[in-house]
Amino acid sequence: MAVAYPNLSAEMKRMGITQGDLADAIGVTQVTVSRWFNGHRRPSVEMCFKVKERLFPNLTVDYLFSSEPDWLTK
């Protein structure tokens, strides 16, 4: 199964951030984050902005939460 947010996943990998780290940073459970990545749930707009603001302030929400990997859009 493909990752629902490949750009977010790639940025997390680059920075050594785990799903547990992401969950802790935005105040949700690791299970919630796992469900986002496996496509069973979608994060709210508020959660998307928390991820961006707390962990990736130099990136856009559109980029982080795109369902297409960045290399496909270039």
CATH superfamily: lambda repressor-like DNA-binding domains
Structural class assignment: mainly alpha
How many DSSP-defined strands? 0
CATH architecture name = Orthogonal Bundle
- Identify the quaternary structure here: single chain
In angstroms, what is the radius of gyration? 11 Å
CATH topology: 434 Repressor (Amino-terminal Domain)
Measured as a percent range, the helix fraction is 55-70%
Return the string of H and E elements. HHHHH
Sheet of most strands? none
Q: How many domains comprise the coordinates?
A: 1
Classify the beta-strand content into a percent band: under 5%
What's the end-to-end separation, in Å? 23 Å
pLDDT averaged residue by residue? 91
Q: Which term fits the overall shape?
A: globular
| Low-pLDDT residue intervals, each spanning 5 or more residues | none
User: How many DSSP helices?
Assistant: 5
What is the CATH top level name?
A: Mainly Alpha
Short description:
With 74 residues, the chain is an all-alpha fold. The protein has one domain: 434 Repressor (Amino-terminal Domain).
